[in-house]
Amino acid sequence: MLGSTSIVDRCLWRMGILDAASPLRVNVPVFTGIVGFHLLALLACIPWLFSWSGLAWAVAGLYLFGTIGINIGYHRLLTHRGFACPRWLEHALTVVGACCWQGTPMNWVSVHRMHHQHSDDSGDPHTPRAGFFWSHMGWFLIYDPALYNIATYDRYARDLFQDRFYKWLERPRIWRNIHRAQWAAFFVAGAVVGGLTEWSLEGALQLGLSWLVWGVFVRTVAVWHITWSVNSVTHLWGYQTHDTRDDSRNNWLVGLVSNGEGWHNNHHAEPRSAAHGQRWWELDVSYLTIWALERTGLVWDVVRPKPKQRTPVEKADEHAAA
Ligand SMILES: [Zn+2]
Ligand SMILES: [Zn+2]
Asked: Can you name the residues that pair with 239 across neighbouring β-strands?
């Protein structure tokens, strides 16, 4: 992990957050983006930028971008192939996921497959055994060349690596344009609605900025922390239904807030299953969405949890009870 030092490294050394003797170096573009987005999200504290419709966009965005883009697109479809769908739908889900600024599909899928292969072991990029902060966000703030190279993508995400669409998404210009487009879309839509309802330039500017701050900045930061909680919280706290030989847990709070990703022990037990909730209280809105899409015919070959195999002891108990 050796690399040249940056001004960010030197600041963190002075603050005592990083050790100057350590070979770890900050991933400056990622660090700047993460800090920048958190600061932009704080604009939500300015009363002039508040609107109920902006708040509604932030809440709806958790589902529209976090659940549909990340949970269903990046995770259950691209990483685990838990269901099949037409190419246009796969690409649409991917672009929605890309709007969450969690990395390119090839990078996200590689890191996550690495996590499943080496769960809570030395090859796991974000195990909490290295500390809560490390598993939550430290692992990508520090530059690790092993996570950003072609050999890794070829090894862990060959299906995407050999696909022209996903190679196209690796281009920085395309990546930047996706983000510019969503910023513009939220601002312009808000400005049009604000201009028409208030009939003033200030009204247009106010609602445009409100939708941008709440619909993009606040929502992006919220979706980040929800996704990161799956890496940190659900490998620390919760119950284990399956003996998966890792620290994965089913955590009801993350399960509810993330729309189903918090049933993480179930997921580690059967990674390909498109349904993470297995018991009646394990609400999995992401799976319910996939199920609804299946009913419309847009999705097929949905992988579901295997029926539970009864142990010989359970069979004997049932026999005795009968
Ligand atoms: Zn995990
Ligand atoms: Zn997974």
From this structure: 250
In this predicted model, what pLDDT tens digit does every residue of 160-214 receive, in sequence order? Answer: 999 999 999 999 999 999 999 999 999 999 999 999 998 999 999 999 999 999 9
pLDDT at 318 (0 to 100) = 64
What is the 115 CA–ligand 1 centroid distance (Å)? Answer: 7
Nearest CA among 257, 249, 255, 260 for reference residue 284: 260
Query: Cα of 150 to ligand 2 centre, how many Å?
Result: 21
* Full-model pTM: 0.90
In the block, residue with structure tokens 């690399």: 3
Per-domain residue ranges of the chain: 7-321
Could you tell me the distance, in angstroms and rounded to a whole number, from the CA of residue 230 to the centre of ligand 1? 7
- DSSP assignment of 178-238 equals HHHHHHHHHHHHHHHHHHHHH-SHHHHHHHHHHHHIIIIIIHHHHHHHHHHHHHHGGGTSS
User: Distance from the CA of 38 to the center of ligand 1, in angstroms?
Assistant: 25
